[in-house]
UniProtKB/TrEMBL annotation:
Record's function text: Catalyzes the conversion of epoxyqueuosine (oQ) to queuosine (Q), which is a hypermodified base found in the wobble positions of tRNA(Asp), tRNA(Asn), tRNA(His) and tRNA(Tyr).
Organism of derivation: Candidatus Ordinivivax streblomastigis
Keyword terms, alphabetized: 4Fe-4S, Disulfide bond, Iron, Iron-sulfur, Metal-binding, Oxidoreductase, Queuosine biosynthesis, Redox-active center, tRNA processing
Upper taxonomic lineage: Bacteria, Pseudomonadati, Bacteroidota, Bacteroidia, Bacteroidales
Gene behind the chain: queH
Enzyme Commission code(s) on record: 1.17.99.6
Location of region: Disordered: 188-208
Pathway connected to this protein: tRNA modification; tRNA-queuosine biosynthesis
Name of this chain's protein: Epoxyqueuosine reductase QueH
GO molecular function: 4 iron, 4 sulfur cluster binding; epoxyqueuosine reductase activity; metal ion binding
Key word tRNA processing present: yes
Length: 208
């Protein structure tokens, strides 16, 4: 299985700060400095999207990592998963969602000269690792110069470290995956601030 190293040009697709923090810590400890790509048009509503994006952007600034902001087009995402709205979590809709997001990541990687991509989606216990690897390998098959790093980010103590960093950094901890179909209740969409812990950091606001 492919593995990145300190000489890798890694473009890391990121979904949120809680899922990214332990991965970024591990990468930096292993002399790998990724560029972060936030491309998540599935997130609804846009207020929720902005909260997650800005939380991660602040953390990227703290670590002095480059952050690339992808386009937010929820309507295009809805068109891409049309007909799969009633599929269960970890079903066909999720696979199609992963494929869309990782295809955009692979395309950007090739355009900017990155040789590898990976995703923080694989850190979540709510996600199907096989689906993520399938989507990642499918995405890079369209761009021969790019490889997909299918690392299991739940091992090596990273799941436990995730919880520690979540608490230490006061990250916004969402209550649903992102799209309106994954929300466990209407209140999960309407009240994003209800999951915001007290911020224990002194992190600058994200640059415009």
């Amino acid at each position: 299985m492919f593995a990145a190293n300190k000489d890798s040009m890694l473009l890391l697709h990121t979904c949120c700060a809680p899922c990214s923090a332990a991965i970024l810590e591990w990468l930096l400890a292993n002399n790998i400095r990724p560029t972060l790509f936030f491309y998540n048009p599935n997130i609804f509503p846009q207020e929720e999207y902005e909260i997650r994006k800005n939380d991660l952007k602040r953390y990227a600034q703290l670590l002095d990592l480059e952050f690339i902001d992808g386009d937010y087009s929820h309507e295009s995402w809805l068109a891409g998963i049309k007909g799969l709205e009633t599929q269960p979590e970890r079903g066909a809709r999720c696979l199609e969602c992963f494929k869309m997001r990782l295809l955009a990541t692979a395309q950007l990687a090739q355009e900017k000269g990155f040789t590898q991509i990976a995703t923080t989606l694989a850190s979540s216990r709510w996600k199907n690792l096989e689906q993520i690897e399938t989507a990642g390998q499918w995405a890079v098959s369209h761009f021969p110069a790019v490889e997909f790093w299918a690392k299991n980010w739940r091992k090596d103590g990273l799941s436990e470290r995730r919880q520690i960093l979540l608490s230490e950094n006061g990250f916004y901890n969402q209550t649903y995956c992102g799209c309106e179909f994954s929300a466990c209740s209407k209140s999960a969409i309407k009240s994003p601030e209800s999951s915001k812990p007290t911020d224990k950091r002194n992190i600058p606001s994200p640059a415009n």
